[in-house]
Amino acid sequence: xxxxxxxxFEGAHIVRNCTSQRCRENIHGHxxxxxxxxxxxxxxxxxMVMDFVLLNNVRExxxxxxxxxxxxxxxxxxxxxxxxxxxxxxxxxxxxPSAEGYALLFFFVxxxxxxxxxxxxxxxxxxxxxVRVHETQSGYAESSVEDLELVKFTMNDVKLNDGIKKExxxxxxxxxxGGF
Length: 180
Hints:
It is globular, with a radius of gyration of 17 Å. The longest helix has 17 residues, at 99-115. It has a single domain, classed as 6-pyruvoyl tetrahydropterin synthase/QueD (Tetrahydropterin Synthase, Chain A, 2-Layer Sandwich). It has helices at 21-25, 56-63, 77-86, 99-115, 162-165, 172-176; strands at residues 2-13, 28-39, 68-72, 90-93, 127-134, 140-144, 159-160. A hairpin with a 5-residue loop joins β5 and β6. The protein contains 6 helices and 7 strands. By secondary structure, the protein is α/β, with parallel strands linked by helices. α2 (56-63) packs antiparallel against α4.
C-alpha cells in the first residue's frame, strides 16, 4: 500500500545552465508542493501504513526551504556573497535547485529520516517510495530509490545557514540523520 503526504514551501533560486534564459539569468521563485509517498506491505495497529504525525521531521526539513534562497554550491563566489548578504535564509545545496535537483536531494534526506524514525504502533517495512516536487502547477519532477545512484554528495554538502537553523521548532530530524 502507498500513502502520500503533501507539504508546501515558497522559495527562490537561479537555475544555471538550463535552456531558459529567464531561469538561468534571473532570481525567481515558485510555490512548491512536495509530495512524499511511503510504501509498506503491512498495516499498523491503527490499520495504517504510518500515522502522518510521524512525518513531523520531514515537515521540519522541508520547511527549512520556506522563504529561503536555494543556492547551488557551484554558483560563482561573487553571487554567493551577494545572496548571503541580502538574505537571512539561505540553503546552499550540492545540486542545481531545479525541480529535479530538489526531488533528488529531498529523496536522499527524507529517506535518511524515514529510515531512522522510531516506529511505535506496529508499523513494519515502511519505506520511502518516491518524492515528487511540483515547481509549477503543470510540471513536477519525481525521484525514487533508483535515483540514489545519481547522488554524488553527502549531508556535509548541504548547508543551511543560521537564519534557517534558528527557526527550527524541532531539531529531531537533524539528530535522526546524525547532524551535519
